[in-house]
Design a protein that fits this description.
With about 400 residues, this protein is mainly α. It has one domain. It has 15 helices and 3 strands. A hairpin with a 2-residue loop joins strand 1 and strand 2.
Length: about 400
Protein backbone atom coordinates (compact mmCIF):
# COMPACT_ATOMS: atom_id res chain seq x y z
CA UNK A 1 0.00 0.00 0.00
CA UNK A 2 2.88 2.36 0.82
CA UNK A 3 4.50 1.68 -2.55
CA UNK A 4 1.20 2.08 -4.40
CA UNK A 5 0.49 5.51 -2.95
CA UNK A 6 3.94 6.95 -2.38
CA UNK A 7 6.30 5.19 -4.81
CA UNK A 8 7.39 8.47 -6.44
CA UNK A 9 7.96 10.07 -3.03
CA UNK A 10 10.07 7.13 -1.84
CA UNK A 11 12.03 7.30 -5.08
CA UNK A 12 12.70 11.00 -4.60
CA UNK A 13 13.65 10.57 -0.93
CA UNK A 14 16.20 7.89 -1.84
CA UNK A 15 17.71 10.04 -4.60
CA UNK A 16 17.90 13.20 -2.49
CA UNK A 17 19.37 11.24 0.43
CA UNK A 18 22.13 9.87 -1.81
CA UNK A 19 22.80 13.31 -3.34
CA UNK A 20 23.04 15.05 0.02
CA UNK A 21 25.32 12.42 1.55
CA UNK A 22 27.41 12.45 -1.62
CA UNK A 23 27.77 16.22 -1.49
CA UNK A 24 28.93 16.10 2.13
CA UNK A 25 31.42 13.31 1.46
CA UNK A 26 32.68 15.00 -1.69
CA UNK A 27 33.72 17.95 0.48
CA UNK A 28 35.95 15.61 2.47
CA UNK A 29 37.10 13.22 -0.27
CA UNK A 30 38.20 15.91 -2.76
CA UNK A 31 40.22 18.02 -0.33
CA UNK A 32 43.53 16.41 -1.29
CA UNK A 33 42.87 15.69 -4.98
CA UNK A 34 45.47 16.77 -7.51
CA UNK A 35 42.80 18.35 -9.69
CA UNK A 36 41.70 20.60 -6.81
CA UNK A 37 45.31 21.62 -6.25
CA UNK A 38 45.69 22.45 -9.94
CA UNK A 39 42.52 24.55 -9.79
CA UNK A 40 43.90 26.36 -6.75
CA UNK A 41 40.70 25.78 -4.77
CA UNK A 42 40.18 22.88 -2.33
CA UNK A 43 36.41 23.38 -2.72
CA UNK A 44 36.55 23.18 -6.52
CA UNK A 45 34.69 19.87 -6.82
CA UNK A 46 32.20 20.73 -4.09
CA UNK A 47 31.21 23.97 -5.81
CA UNK A 48 30.96 22.33 -9.22
CA UNK A 49 28.91 19.44 -7.87
CA UNK A 50 26.57 21.77 -5.97
CA UNK A 51 25.89 23.79 -9.12
CA UNK A 52 25.27 20.61 -11.14
CA UNK A 53 23.01 19.25 -8.39
CA UNK A 54 20.90 22.42 -8.43
CA UNK A 55 20.73 22.38 -12.23
CA UNK A 56 19.97 18.66 -12.20
CA UNK A 57 17.05 19.14 -9.82
CA UNK A 58 15.64 21.79 -12.15
CA UNK A 59 15.99 19.36 -15.07
CA UNK A 60 14.40 16.62 -13.00
CA UNK A 61 11.43 18.83 -12.19
CA UNK A 62 10.99 19.95 -15.79
CA UNK A 63 11.23 16.39 -17.16
CA UNK A 64 8.73 15.12 -14.59
CA UNK A 65 6.11 17.56 -15.90
CA UNK A 66 6.64 16.53 -19.54
CA UNK A 67 4.81 13.47 -20.79
CA UNK A 68 7.55 10.88 -21.28
CA UNK A 69 5.91 9.78 -24.54
CA UNK A 70 6.69 13.13 -26.15
CA UNK A 71 10.41 12.35 -26.24
CA UNK A 72 9.79 9.59 -28.78
CA UNK A 73 8.30 12.07 -31.25
CA UNK A 74 11.62 13.92 -31.39
CA UNK A 75 13.93 10.93 -30.93
CA UNK A 76 15.59 11.34 -34.36
CA UNK A 77 16.87 14.83 -33.57
CA UNK A 78 17.74 13.90 -29.99
CA UNK A 79 19.64 10.86 -31.18
CA UNK A 80 21.52 12.78 -33.87
CA UNK A 81 22.52 15.45 -31.34
CA UNK A 82 23.80 12.74 -28.99
CA UNK A 83 25.86 11.13 -31.77
CA UNK A 84 27.35 14.48 -32.78
CA UNK A 85 28.49 15.05 -29.20
CA UNK A 86 30.09 11.60 -29.13
CA UNK A 87 31.91 12.29 -32.40
CA UNK A 88 33.27 15.56 -30.96
CA UNK A 89 35.29 13.46 -28.52
CA UNK A 90 37.49 12.62 -31.52
CA UNK A 91 37.89 16.21 -32.77
CA UNK A 92 41.15 17.92 -31.77
CA UNK A 93 40.60 21.26 -30.09
CA UNK A 94 37.22 20.22 -28.73
CA UNK A 95 38.00 16.93 -27.02
CA UNK A 96 39.38 16.97 -23.49
CA UNK A 97 42.02 14.32 -22.76
CA UNK A 98 42.54 13.00 -19.24
CA UNK A 99 44.49 9.89 -18.23
CA UNK A 100 45.29 9.29 -21.92
CA UNK A 101 41.57 8.94 -22.68
CA UNK A 102 39.35 11.38 -24.61
CA UNK A 103 35.92 10.90 -23.04
CA UNK A 104 35.12 14.58 -22.57
CA UNK A 105 34.53 17.65 -24.70
CA UNK A 106 35.30 21.22 -23.69
CA UNK A 107 33.50 24.30 -24.98
CA UNK A 108 34.80 27.39 -23.22
CA UNK A 109 34.69 26.77 -19.47
CA UNK A 110 32.18 23.91 -19.82
CA UNK A 111 33.46 20.33 -19.79
CA UNK A 112 31.01 17.49 -20.39
CA UNK A 113 30.99 13.73 -20.94
CA UNK A 114 28.69 12.91 -23.90
CA UNK A 115 28.44 9.23 -22.98
CA UNK A 116 26.24 10.15 -20.01
CA UNK A 117 23.67 11.73 -22.32
CA UNK A 118 24.01 8.80 -24.72
CA UNK A 119 22.87 6.38 -22.01
CA UNK A 120 19.63 8.31 -21.49
CA UNK A 121 19.00 8.72 -25.24
CA UNK A 122 19.52 4.98 -25.80
CA UNK A 123 16.86 4.20 -23.18
CA UNK A 124 14.43 6.65 -24.76
CA UNK A 125 14.97 5.11 -28.19
CA UNK A 126 14.68 1.45 -27.17
CA UNK A 127 11.59 1.99 -25.02
CA UNK A 128 9.81 4.02 -27.69
CA UNK A 129 10.89 1.67 -30.48
CA UNK A 130 9.53 -1.49 -28.88
CA UNK A 131 6.27 0.24 -28.01
CA UNK A 132 5.94 1.51 -31.60
CA UNK A 133 6.81 -1.94 -32.98
CA UNK A 134 5.00 -3.90 -30.29
CA UNK A 135 3.30 -6.15 -32.86
CA UNK A 136 6.61 -6.82 -34.66
CA UNK A 137 9.06 -6.83 -31.80
CA UNK A 138 9.48 -10.62 -31.96
CA UNK A 139 10.76 -10.55 -35.55
CA UNK A 140 14.43 -10.51 -36.50
CA UNK A 141 14.45 -7.22 -38.43
CA UNK A 142 12.26 -5.10 -36.17
CA UNK A 143 13.02 -6.80 -32.87
CA UNK A 144 16.78 -7.26 -33.12
CA UNK A 145 18.48 -5.95 -36.27
CA UNK A 146 17.34 -2.31 -36.37
CA UNK A 147 17.45 -1.60 -32.61
CA UNK A 148 20.70 -3.56 -32.36
CA UNK A 149 22.38 -1.39 -35.01
CA UNK A 150 20.98 1.76 -33.41
CA UNK A 151 22.46 0.70 -30.06
CA UNK A 152 25.76 -0.47 -31.55
CA UNK A 153 26.59 2.95 -33.05
CA UNK A 154 26.85 4.92 -29.76
CA UNK A 155 28.28 1.91 -27.93
CA UNK A 156 30.98 1.57 -30.60
CA UNK A 157 31.88 5.25 -30.40
CA UNK A 158 32.19 4.98 -26.63
CA UNK A 159 34.28 1.80 -26.93
CA UNK A 160 36.87 3.54 -29.08
CA UNK A 161 37.04 6.31 -26.49
CA UNK A 162 38.45 3.50 -24.30
CA UNK A 163 35.45 3.84 -21.98
CA UNK A 164 34.95 0.08 -21.77
CA UNK A 165 32.93 0.17 -18.56
CA UNK A 166 30.24 2.52 -19.89
CA UNK A 167 30.03 0.61 -23.18
CA UNK A 168 29.53 -2.71 -21.39
CA UNK A 169 26.94 -1.12 -19.10
CA UNK A 170 24.96 0.18 -22.09
CA UNK A 171 25.19 -3.20 -23.82
CA UNK A 172 23.86 -4.97 -20.72
CA UNK A 173 20.96 -2.54 -20.36
CA UNK A 174 20.16 -2.97 -24.05
CA UNK A 175 19.95 -6.73 -23.56
CA UNK A 176 17.71 -6.34 -20.51
CA UNK A 177 15.28 -4.08 -22.41
CA UNK A 178 15.20 -6.48 -25.35
CA UNK A 179 14.38 -9.36 -23.03
CA UNK A 180 11.72 -7.36 -21.19
CA UNK A 181 10.16 -6.29 -24.49
CA UNK A 182 9.60 -9.92 -25.43
CA UNK A 183 12.33 -10.42 -28.03
CA UNK A 184 12.63 -14.22 -28.49
CA UNK A 185 15.44 -15.94 -26.68
CA UNK A 186 16.83 -17.32 -29.94
CA UNK A 187 17.31 -13.77 -31.20
CA UNK A 188 18.86 -12.74 -27.90
CA UNK A 189 21.28 -15.64 -28.28
CA UNK A 190 22.33 -14.22 -31.66
CA UNK A 191 22.84 -10.83 -30.03
CA UNK A 192 24.99 -12.41 -27.31
CA UNK A 193 27.20 -14.09 -29.92
CA UNK A 194 27.66 -10.79 -31.76
CA UNK A 195 28.39 -9.00 -28.48
CA UNK A 196 30.95 -11.66 -27.63
CA UNK A 197 32.65 -11.03 -30.98
CA UNK A 198 32.70 -7.32 -30.21
CA UNK A 199 34.32 -7.99 -26.84
CA UNK A 200 36.96 -10.08 -28.62
CA UNK A 201 37.75 -7.16 -30.95
CA UNK A 202 38.07 -4.80 -27.99
CA UNK A 203 40.38 -7.19 -26.14
CA UNK A 204 42.57 -7.49 -29.25
CA UNK A 205 42.73 -3.70 -29.69
CA UNK A 206 43.16 -2.80 -26.02
CA UNK A 207 44.96 -5.73 -24.34
CA UNK A 208 45.75 -3.59 -21.29
CA UNK A 209 42.03 -3.59 -20.46
CA UNK A 210 41.94 -7.39 -20.39
CA UNK A 211 44.87 -7.47 -17.98
CA UNK A 212 42.61 -5.93 -15.32
CA UNK A 213 40.53 -9.09 -15.33
CA UNK A 214 43.63 -11.29 -15.16
CA UNK A 215 45.00 -9.20 -12.30
CA UNK A 216 41.70 -9.57 -10.46
CA UNK A 217 41.70 -13.35 -10.95
CA UNK A 218 45.32 -13.57 -9.75
CA UNK A 219 44.76 -11.18 -6.86
CA UNK A 220 47.04 -13.18 -4.55
CA UNK A 221 50.00 -12.90 -6.91
CA UNK A 222 52.52 -10.40 -5.45
CA UNK A 223 53.55 -9.34 -8.95
CA UNK A 224 50.15 -7.76 -9.70
CA UNK A 225 49.92 -5.76 -6.47
CA UNK A 226 50.99 -2.55 -8.23
CA UNK A 227 48.34 -2.98 -10.94
CA UNK A 228 45.68 -3.36 -8.25
CA UNK A 229 46.81 -0.36 -6.23
CA UNK A 230 43.42 1.37 -6.11
CA UNK A 231 41.48 -1.69 -4.97
CA UNK A 232 44.14 -2.51 -2.38
CA UNK A 233 43.91 1.01 -0.94
CA UNK A 234 40.11 0.80 -1.04
CA UNK A 235 40.17 -2.36 1.08
CA UNK A 236 42.49 -0.68 3.56
CA UNK A 237 40.10 2.27 3.81
CA UNK A 238 37.02 0.09 4.38
CA UNK A 239 38.87 -2.09 6.87
CA UNK A 240 40.22 0.81 8.90
CA UNK A 241 36.79 2.43 9.08
CA UNK A 242 35.16 -0.54 10.79
CA UNK A 243 31.65 -0.04 12.14
CA UNK A 244 31.98 3.46 13.58
CA UNK A 245 34.48 5.01 11.16
CA UNK A 246 37.56 7.10 11.91
CA UNK A 247 35.58 10.32 11.89
CA UNK A 248 34.39 12.78 9.26
CA UNK A 249 37.34 14.40 7.49
CA UNK A 250 39.91 12.08 9.10
CA UNK A 251 40.43 9.69 6.20
CA UNK A 252 44.06 8.78 5.55
CA UNK A 253 43.61 7.02 2.23
CA UNK A 254 42.28 10.16 0.55
CA UNK A 255 45.69 11.78 1.09
CA UNK A 256 46.77 10.72 -2.41
CA UNK A 257 46.94 7.03 -1.47
CA UNK A 258 43.63 6.56 -3.31
CA UNK A 259 43.89 8.58 -6.54
CA UNK A 260 40.16 8.59 -7.44
CA UNK A 261 38.78 9.07 -3.94
CA UNK A 262 36.26 11.72 -5.01
CA UNK A 263 34.98 9.91 -8.12
CA UNK A 264 34.89 6.14 -8.58
CA UNK A 265 36.04 5.31 -5.04
CA UNK A 266 33.98 7.72 -2.95
CA UNK A 267 32.17 4.75 -1.39
CA UNK A 268 35.42 3.71 0.34
CA UNK A 269 35.85 7.15 1.91
CA UNK A 270 32.31 6.90 3.25
CA UNK A 271 33.21 3.56 4.80
CA UNK A 272 36.50 4.82 6.23
CA UNK A 273 35.19 8.04 7.75
CA UNK A 274 31.62 7.12 8.71
CA UNK A 275 31.89 3.35 9.03
CA UNK A 276 29.80 0.33 8.11
CA UNK A 277 26.54 1.96 9.16
CA UNK A 278 26.93 4.69 6.56
CA UNK A 279 27.83 2.27 3.76
CA UNK A 280 24.80 0.14 4.62
CA UNK A 281 22.70 3.30 4.56
CA UNK A 282 23.94 4.02 1.04
CA UNK A 283 23.10 0.47 -0.03
CA UNK A 284 19.69 0.81 1.63
CA UNK A 285 18.95 4.00 -0.31
CA UNK A 286 19.82 2.27 -3.59
CA UNK A 287 17.60 -0.70 -2.71
CA UNK A 288 14.80 1.72 -1.87
CA UNK A 289 15.31 3.47 -5.20
CA UNK A 290 15.29 0.20 -7.16
CA UNK A 291 12.17 -1.16 -5.43
CA UNK A 292 10.20 2.08 -5.80
CA UNK A 293 11.37 2.57 -9.40
CA UNK A 294 10.53 -1.02 -10.28
CA UNK A 295 7.05 -0.60 -8.86
CA UNK A 296 6.56 2.56 -10.94
CA UNK A 297 7.64 0.69 -14.07
CA UNK A 298 5.25 -2.17 -13.28
CA UNK A 299 2.27 0.22 -13.21
CA UNK A 300 3.18 2.20 -16.32
CA UNK A 301 0.24 2.94 -18.63
CA UNK A 302 1.95 1.56 -21.74
CA UNK A 303 4.90 -0.49 -22.93
CA UNK A 304 6.98 2.63 -23.53
CA UNK A 305 6.69 3.66 -19.90
CA UNK A 306 7.24 0.13 -18.62
CA UNK A 307 10.45 -0.35 -20.61
CA UNK A 308 11.70 3.17 -19.98
CA UNK A 309 11.12 2.86 -16.23
CA UNK A 310 12.63 -0.60 -16.05
CA UNK A 311 15.62 0.51 -18.12
CA UNK A 312 16.26 3.54 -15.90
CA UNK A 313 16.11 1.43 -12.75
CA UNK A 314 18.37 -1.26 -14.22
CA UNK A 315 20.86 1.33 -15.48
CA UNK A 316 21.19 3.11 -12.13
CA UNK A 317 21.02 -0.07 -10.06
CA UNK A 318 23.54 -1.92 -12.20
CA UNK A 319 25.92 1.03 -12.19
CA UNK A 320 25.75 1.20 -8.38
CA UNK A 321 26.25 -2.57 -8.11
CA UNK A 322 29.32 -2.49 -10.36
CA UNK A 323 30.85 0.47 -8.53
CA UNK A 324 30.39 -1.06 -5.09
CA UNK A 325 31.53 -4.43 -6.42
CA UNK A 326 34.75 -2.87 -7.75
CA UNK A 327 35.66 -0.97 -4.57
CA UNK A 328 35.03 -4.07 -2.44
CA UNK A 329 37.03 -6.17 -4.97
CA UNK A 330 34.09 -8.42 -5.81
CA UNK A 331 34.52 -7.34 -9.45
CA UNK A 332 37.50 -6.34 -11.63
CA UNK A 333 38.43 -2.67 -11.71
CA UNK A 334 36.23 -0.64 -14.09
CA UNK A 335 35.81 3.09 -14.44
CA UNK A 336 32.17 3.24 -13.30
CA UNK A 337 31.08 6.08 -11.02
CA UNK A 338 28.57 5.79 -8.16
CA UNK A 339 25.24 7.36 -9.22
CA UNK A 340 24.13 10.50 -7.32
CA UNK A 341 27.36 10.55 -5.28
CA UNK A 342 30.57 10.53 -7.35
CA UNK A 343 32.01 13.81 -8.62
CA UNK A 344 30.97 14.51 -12.18
CA UNK A 345 28.47 17.03 -13.46
CA UNK A 346 27.46 15.09 -16.58
CA UNK A 347 26.68 11.98 -14.57
CA UNK A 348 24.67 13.97 -12.03
CA UNK A 349 22.59 15.68 -14.73
CA UNK A 350 21.92 12.41 -16.56
CA UNK A 351 20.96 10.51 -13.41
CA UNK A 352 18.60 13.23 -12.22
CA UNK A 353 17.13 13.32 -15.72
CA UNK A 354 16.34 9.61 -15.37
CA UNK A 355 14.76 10.36 -12.00
CA UNK A 356 12.53 12.92 -13.70
CA UNK A 357 11.48 10.34 -16.30
CA UNK A 358 10.51 7.90 -13.55
CA UNK A 359 8.44 10.57 -11.80
CA UNK A 360 6.79 11.42 -15.13
CA UNK A 361 5.82 7.77 -15.57
CA UNK A 362 4.47 7.63 -12.02
CA UNK A 363 2.32 10.74 -12.54
CA UNK A 364 0.77 9.27 -15.68
CA UNK A 365 0.14 5.91 -14.03
CA UNK A 366 -2.22 7.30 -11.42
CA UNK A 367 -5.24 6.81 -13.68
CA UNK A 368 -4.55 3.14 -14.31
CA UNK A 369 -7.12 1.01 -12.55
CA UNK A 370 -5.80 -2.46 -11.86
CA UNK A 371 -9.05 -3.73 -10.36
CA UNK A 372 -10.70 -4.42 -13.72
CA UNK A 373 -8.03 -6.80 -15.06
CA UNK A 374 -10.46 -9.74 -14.99
CA UNK A 375 -12.95 -7.90 -17.20
CA UNK A 376 -10.53 -7.38 -20.05
CA UNK A 377 -10.28 -9.50 -23.18
CA UNK A 378 -7.68 -12.29 -23.20
CA UNK A 379 -4.25 -11.42 -24.50
CA UNK A 380 -3.82 -11.46 -28.24
CA UNK A 381 -1.79 -14.23 -29.80
CA UNK A 382 1.90 -13.34 -30.02
CA UNK A 383 3.33 -12.89 -33.45
CA UNK A 384 5.60 -15.67 -34.68
CA UNK A 385 9.28 -14.90 -34.86
CA UNK A 386 11.21 -14.32 -38.09
CA UNK A 387 12.89 -17.69 -37.68
CA UNK A 388 9.52 -19.47 -37.51
CA UNK A 389 8.02 -21.46 -34.67
CA UNK A 390 6.42 -20.16 -31.51
CA UNK A 391 8.00 -17.10 -29.96
CA UNK A 392 9.70 -17.29 -26.60
CA UNK A 393 7.43 -16.39 -23.69
CA UNK A 394 7.76 -12.78 -22.61
CA UNK A 395 7.37 -11.32 -19.16
CA UNK A 396 3.76 -11.38 -17.91
CA UNK A 397 1.43 -8.55 -17.04
CA UNK A 398 2.07 -5.05 -18.28
CA UNK A 399 4.60 -6.10 -20.91
CA UNK A 400 1.84 -7.71 -23.01
CA UNK A 401 -0.62 -6.11 -25.37
CA UNK A 402 -3.65 -7.44 -23.53
CA UNK A 403 -2.93 -5.76 -20.20
CA UNK A 404 -5.73 -3.30 -19.30
CA UNK A 405 -3.26 -0.45 -18.87
CA UNK A 406 -2.13 -0.88 -22.50
CA UNK A 407 -5.57 0.13 -23.79
CA UNK A 408 -5.43 3.44 -21.95
CA UNK A 409 -2.47 4.99 -23.71
CA UNK A 410 0.60 4.45 -25.77
CA UNK A 411 3.22 6.11 -27.82
CA UNK A 412 1.71 8.11 -30.62
Amino acid sequence: MLLKRHSALLLFIAAVGLCCLGLVMLYSASAFSRQAEMAGDPLHFLKTQAVCLGLGLLICGAVSFIDYRLWWRHIIWIGLASLVLLVLCYVPGVRQIANHEARWIKVGPIVGQPSELAKVVLLLFLAGWYDWMRLRRRTFVWGLLIPGIAAAIPIGLILFEKDIGTALLMALVTGVIMFAAGVPLRLLAVAMVLAGGGIGVVVAKYPEKATRILDWVNKDDPEVKAARWQQEQAKIALGSGGIEGVGFGDSRQKMLFLPEAHTDFIFTIIGEELGLRATLTVVGFFVMFIVAGGFIASRAPDLNGALLGAGAVVLIGLQAFINIGVVTELLPNKGISLPFMSAGGSGMLATLGLLGLLVSIAKRSEGVDEDDEEDEEPRSRARRSWFGGSPSPSLPGWFEEGHPARSRGGAS
